[in-house]
Each structure stands twice: as structure tokens, then as C-alpha cells.
Amino acid sequence: MTVKINTKDGQIELSDDVIATVVGGSANEIFGVVGMASKSAIKDNFQALLRRENYSKGVVIKSTEEGISIDVYTVMSYGVKISEVSKNIQERVKFNLENQLGISADMVNIYVQNIKVVGED
Question: What is the pLDDT of residues 25-42, one digit of tens each?
């Protein structure tokens, strides 16, 4: 699925992988985020952190008539205030999407898949 943007010069199509890379990079910039997790980590019992090339497995983009909804699956550090870190992720994702891609997300949902103690493997 792609997000389509109409401009005066034509139509721009952004793939979900491009959006997921921007979203994943934005989330990983926030203090308290250890990394991205697979959206099916609990079901698959898959606890590995996702690398940059696999961010699309930890981000779900839904495009509807109302706008764009983004689900971000994260792993956070032990001891951080989850509500504050989540709010910071939401703000950073919205800001970077608007500035880098020119699109706005109506909803950014944060799902905490795991908590890790810093220094734990």
C-alpha cells in the first residue's frame, strides 16, 4: 500500500517502507527507546530488536479517507516513564513526517512490546 500526494506537478507515491523508515528512525531518536520490535513479537515469541532495514516490521501504516494512522511497536528501557516517552515519540514522528515527507499523521499509536534493562543482552 502507498500514500498518494497530489501536487500541482503530478502525483507522488510514498511506499510504506519509506514511511516506516522515517517513523522508526524518529522513534529511535527518543531517550528511553531501546529499539523497534516486530508487530507480531508476542504472537511469534520473537524478542529481537529490529535493525534499520527492518523497521517496516515494527511500523503499521493505515491509510483511510480520514487520513493516515500509524502504529509503532517499541522496546523501552527499564525505569523510564512510559507515558512521557510515548508522547515524545508521537510528537517526533508527526514532526519528522511533516518536515521530511510532507505528510501528516492523524494518529500515532505507540505499543510497548518489551521493557529491557540497559546493559541486558
Answer: 899 899 999 888 877 655
Q: In the chain, what is the straight-line distance between the N-terminal and C-terminal CA atoms, in Å?
A: 35
Residue bearing cell 512490546? 113
Q: What distances in angstroms separate CA 6 from CA 3, 12, 14, 17, one per listed residue?
A: 10, 6, 11, 19
Q: What CATH number matches the domain at 2-116, 3.30.70.120, 3.30.70.2190, 3.90.245.10, 3.30.70.1350?
A: 3.30.70.1350
Count other Cβ atoms within 10 Å, centred on residue 120: 9
**CA–CA separation, 1 and 13 (whole Å):** 10
Specify the pTM: 0.81
Q: Which residue blocks in 5-99 are alpha helix, DSSP H?
A: 16-28, 41-44, 82-96
Contacts of 117 (CB under 8 A, 6+ apart): 77, 78
Taking only the tens place, the pLDDT of each residue in 77-121 is 999 999 999 999 999 999 999 999 888 889 999 999 888 887 655
